[in-house]
């Protein structure tokens, strides 16, 4: 059984990571351990580079906290080109996999508040009345009428980032 350290305590992210590992390695293949670590970037990262840096920094910090793990996984959400997206970074002792998620264009009313310094999660909670929406369906769930959720979009990116770990062609 793999010891997978998630560099987050966010349930939507943990669910995506757990499901992706089950999908790739088989149900019950891993023990997920969430850890709260710093991203080294603002609460609301902007741009591809800052968001990816946040995920990489979370991995580095998670490795320091739990060096004995088999895998370390980070999901960092950000804003880029008027859309929300995330970077997933996964490492083990020998490899790194990275993937960027699908993007969701955000409405101007939401972007205006985010650009003024508020993080997307609290803005969406105010807009919808759903407490801590970033730990649930997120903006993705709201604006896709529940067809996708934050977790389902992260799930795809985690699957993609796992590719170097189970395909020989990457080695």
Automatic annotation (TrEMBL):
Its cofactor is Mn(2+); Mg(2+). This is Inosine/xanthosine triphosphatase. Belongs to the YjjX NTPase family. GO terms for biological process: nucleotide metabolic process; thiamine metabolic process. Homodimer. PANTHER family: NON-CANONICAL PURINE NTP PHOSPHATASE_PRRC1 DOMAIN-CONTAINING PROTEIN, PTHR34699. It comes from the Bacteria. Phosphatase that hydrolyzes non-canonical purine nucleotides such as XTP and ITP to their respective diphosphate derivatives. Probably excludes non-canonical purines from DNA/RNA precursor pool, thus preventing their incorporation into DNA/RNA and avoiding chromosomal lesions. InterPro entries: ITPase-like_fam (IPR029001), Non_canon_purine_NTPase (IPR002786), NTPase/PRRC1 (IPR026533), YjjX_NTPase (IPR050299). Its EC number is 3.6.1.73. Binds 1 divalent metal cation per subunit; can use either Mg(2+) or Mn(2+). Residues 7-165 form the Non-canonical purine NTP phosphatase/PRRC1 domain. Mg(2+) binds at residues 38, 68. It is an enzyme of class 3 (hydrolase). GO terms for molecular function: ITPase activity; metal ion binding; nucleotide binding. Substrate binds at residues 8-13, 68-69. It catalyses: XTP + H2O = XDP + phosphate + H(+); ITP + H2O = IDP + phosphate + H(+). Keywords: Hydrolase, Magnesium, Manganese, Metal-binding, Nucleotide metabolism, Nucleotide-binding.
């Amino acid at each position: 059984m793999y010891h997978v350290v998630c560099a987050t305590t966010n349930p939507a992210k943990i669910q995506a990571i757990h499901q992706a590992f089950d999908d790739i390695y088989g149900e019950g293949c891993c023990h997920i351990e969430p850890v709260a670590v710093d991203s080294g970037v603002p609460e609301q990262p902007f741009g591809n580079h800052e968001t990816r840096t946040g995920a990489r920094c979370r991995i580095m910090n998670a490795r320091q906290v739990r060096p004995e793990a088999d895998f370390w996984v980070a999901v960092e959400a950000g804003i880029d080109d008027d859309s929300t997206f995330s970077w997933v970074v996964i490492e083990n002792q020998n490899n790194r996999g990275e993937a960027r998620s699908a993007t969701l264009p955000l409405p101007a009313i939401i972007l205006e508040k985010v650009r003024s310094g508020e993080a997307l999660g609290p803005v969406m909670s105010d807009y919808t009345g759903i407490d801590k929406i970033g730990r649930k369906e997120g903006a993705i769930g709201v604006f896709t009428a529940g067809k996708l959720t934050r977790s389902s979009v992260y799930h795809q990116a985690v699957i993609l980032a796992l590719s170097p770990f189970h395909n020989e062609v990457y080695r």
